[in-house]
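task queued by scheduler; priority normal; single chain, no ligands, no partner chains; default sampling; output format set to structure tokens
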Amino acid sequence: MDQFSAMKAFRGIVDAGSFTAAAERLDTTHSSMSRQLRQLETHLGSRLLDRNSRRLTLTEAGRAYYQDCVDILDRLEVAEQRLQADHDAPSGLLRVSAPLVIGTLELSQWLPAFLEQYPGIELDLSCDDRLVDLIGGGFDMALRIAGPLADSTLVARELAVTDMVLVASPRYIAQWGLPRQPTDLARHALIGFAGARALSAWSLTSARGAQVEVSPRGRLRVDAIPALHAAVLAGQGIAAFTRLTVQEDLLHGRLVRVLPQHHAGRRHYYAVYPHARQLAPKVRALAGFMARHYAALQQVRPVIPEA
């Protein structure tokens, strides 16, 4: 017995109200529908329908099984639609909200490959560190970097989890020396990020799990990650970034890790959209592309010298 076909036949009989009407809808015969129902009842060991010459009536077991069939068959239909959507070439205007760091420092790492892979998509990228209203703002999706997201009506797909790391330029280290332990940071220029979601202190965790709090209160504070990045490259002090943001700088020696045996917490990269069911192929394309992009970046784990 093909249980999937038997479940479809059973649902069809109930929905149509008769074997003949169900057979016409499913383009089969009355005898085939009757045979599949008998086989299903034998397989389950329960009678699903009481039938007489005038009408069909669900048994108690049949009512419960019918609801399960509807749920299972509907889920399978949605899965097939999603698979079909993946085969269709994504196209159209895709409006995306992204934090400044993704739209500036990380843009060159992913944008050319995405546009080349999906030539039918037009990308409208709005870069802002504020949490925008996706629906009110007419956005298809948002890329966000945050701690664990609070519950909401939005759907969030986690793209990556990355450590926060302390970095400085070789020029700064040459002039002011290399901190060897967290207490040494008190004698250094620490550049604080003054954004709305900034932490008041860096919570540094060692490889052994020991934690210490450091307040990044120096002469310079900025409210945008690109400006923070520029200040660190210019040798103005030590700052905290996600490892994914500064990975290329570390690989090419533009920045060096400070206290590499510590990390300053973790951040999650998310793709956020209003709903998951019947997700547009263009939205699914970008979310999947970004997930693969960050997965590939996380495979690169070079040994970074202190200085």
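post-processing summary
- The first helix runs from residue 3 to 16.
- The first strand starts at residue 49 and ends at 51.
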